[in-house]
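Please, structure for the following, as C-alpha cells.
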Amino acid sequence: MRSFSRVLMVGCLLVALPALAEQNPVTVQTVEATADAPPPKAPKEAPASEPEPAAAVVAKKSEEAPADEMVGAALLFNLNNVFTSGAILDEHRGYGFGYLLDLGEVWGLRLGLDVTRITNPVRVERVTTITGNTTVTDYQLTISGPTDYFGASVGADLVRRLSRRKVAPFAGVGLFVDMSHSALRYTDDVSVTDQVTQVNDRTSSWGVGLEGLAGISWRVHESFSLYAEYTLGLTVFRWTSVRGETTIENSAGGTPTTTRSETEAITTRWLNLGLGLGQGASLGVMAHF
C-alpha cells in the first residue's frame, strides 16, 4: 500500500513540473567577456624646425626697415654741387630743399626746389709805387664775374628704391624747369683820370630739360635719413637774353662829353648737347614724418 502511494506521488510531481516551468520560465543570460581594443595610434608629428638664433633675428631686423617706415613723406635739404664747387660753403651760395611723397614701399614722387643767390661786388684796390723819392698812388677795379646772380630750378622726379634695407641705393628720372638772372653793374671813376664809366649788363635765361639721378640713402633713424646722389641733366630748350649798357663821361680838356652804347642779343637752343649737358653731385638730409 505504502509503495503504491509513493509511486502515485512521484507520478503527480512528474505531471506538475512541466506546468510550473511554463508559468515561471527561467531566463539565463550569458555575458561574453570581450577584451578591450587597443587605442588608435596617434599620427606622428613632423619634427619641429629649429628656431633661428636670436642674434640672427636681431641682425635681420636691423638691416631691413619696417614697412610702415617705408611709406609716408619727407622733407629734403641738400647742398648742391659739393664735389664740383670749391666755394660751396661761401656766403650766399644757395640751398635746396624738396618734398618726397611715397607712393608705396618702392616708388616715390619727389618735388624739388633749388635756389641760388650770389653777390659779388666790385672791389677797388689801391696800388702804391715808390721810385726813389717819388710815390705814385693808383686805383683800379677788380671784377670777377657778375656782381649779382639769382637762379632757381623746380623739378619733379619719379624715384625707385632698389632695396628695403636701411642702407639702400635708389634711382630715378624726371623733368626740370630753371631760370636765372645775372647782372654786372658798377661805376668806375678811378681807372682813368677825368673819366667816369658806368656799366649795366644783364643776362636772363630759362630752360626745360630731362634729368636722371642715382644715389644711396641711409636710414639712420625712423625720423631722418642721410643721402648722397649724382644728377645728370640734359637741357631740351634754352632761351637767353643778353643786354648791355655802357656810359662814359669824360671831362678832360674842360669840355664834358658823354658816350653811350647799348647791345642786345636773344638766342634759343633746342637739344644742344654741347652746351646743355650738366652734371652735379649733392649731399643731404631727409626728415621723415
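Helices lie at 2-23, 54-63, 67-70, 273-276. Confidence is low (pLDDT under 50) at residues 23-37, 86-94.
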